[in-house]
Amino acid sequence: MATHAPDLEWLPGDVPRAEGFDDTYFSKAGGLNETRHVFLAGNNLPTRFQSRSSFTIAEFGFGTGLNFLTTLAALKDVPAAPELLFVSFELYPMTKDQLARALGAFPELNVFASELTSVWAPEAGWNRLSIGNAELLLGIGDARQMIGELTLMDPGRSGGTTQIPPVDAWFLDGFSPAKNPELWDEDLLRQAANLTSDDGTLATYTAAGWVRRNLQSAGFTVEKVGGFAGKREMVIGRKG
Ligand SMILES: C[S@@+](CC[C@H](N)C(=O)[O-])C[C@H]1O[C@@H](n2cnc3c(N)ncnc32)[C@H](O)[C@@H]1O
User: Fold this and answer.
1) Are the CB atoms for 208 and 175 separated by under 8 Å?
2) Entry pTM
């Protein structure tokens, strides 16, 4: 599948909507608070950052980078914060201007947003960027193909794959499952589970029944909890 920048419509408040998926990148009721509720609190973050020397988060759908930058902002307030590796996938990387416009709506993230946009030049394949105290490993391409290029760290093995430590927390953030079923695919989620640490967790804003079943078949235990801004339910889970 060819990688290209998305066609966007800008809704009030500079909320980007992808025309190809007929969906917004985050909640119109407030992207920052949605990220904090769904992805951070849903994975018990930033609490789990404490007493760790390193931590790995992985995400399906980098989009505007809002989840990544909100995580960096939360990490900044943690004493003796761990080294963060944030792995994310994106098939349709935004242009620098699109990214800057979307992130401009979140003044609290300004410092990290400027750092990200100043180095933003994603190319197909794996891109490594240092932002704040974190390393961003960004796979530009279809997540369903790119995930197969990741293996768990093994000092005895070299070449051929991109090695990562076991994932401590997953941010499952494709567009709505009905519109973007590729990112909720059972085989993709199984590969995600295989890259997850034994006490690894996941969170997602959707509680769609077939997504929950795919997560369970993939090797996660899931439960429904209260969603963000009027959404009755979202899903959190853990490996096993
Ligand atoms: C809801 S948005 C993600 C929002 C993002 N996490 C943020 O913080 O702004 C979903 C993202 O998944 C991407 N996407 C959709 N299908 C994909 C695929 N097969 N592989 C990789 N990325 C994909 C879309 O282009 C879009 O950027």
Assistant:
1) no
2) 0.97
End-to-end CA distance of the chain: 33
For residues 54 and 85, give the distance between their C-alpha atoms in angstroms, rounded to a whole number.
8
215 Cα–ligand 1 center, Å? 18
Pocket of ligand 1 (CB under 6 A): 6, 25-26, 59, 61-67, 89-92, 142-144, 173-175, 180, 182-183
Q: How far is the CA of 237 from the centre of ligand 1 (A)?
A: 20
For atom 5 of ligand 1, the residue with the nearest CA is 63
- Using the mean position of ligand 1's atoms as its centre, give its distance from the Cα of residue 79 in Å: 31
Q: What is the pLDDT of residues 172-191, one digit of tens each?
A: 999 999 999 999 999 999 99
Other CB atoms within 10 Å distance of the CB of residue 33: 14
Task: Find the Cα–Cα–Cα–Cα dihedral 148, 150, 153, 154, rounded to 10°.
Answer: 50
Q: Are 203 and 209 in contact (CB under 8 A)?
A: no
Is residue 31 within 8 Å of 169, Cβ to Cβ? no
**Given pLDDT bands bounded at 50, 70 and 90, which one contains residue 157?**
confident
Residue 229 pLDDT: 93
Question: Probe ligand 1: pick from 57, 89, 180, 205, max atoms within 8 Å of CB?
Answer: 180
Domains present along the chain, CATH in parentheses: 8-144+170-239 (3.40.50.150)
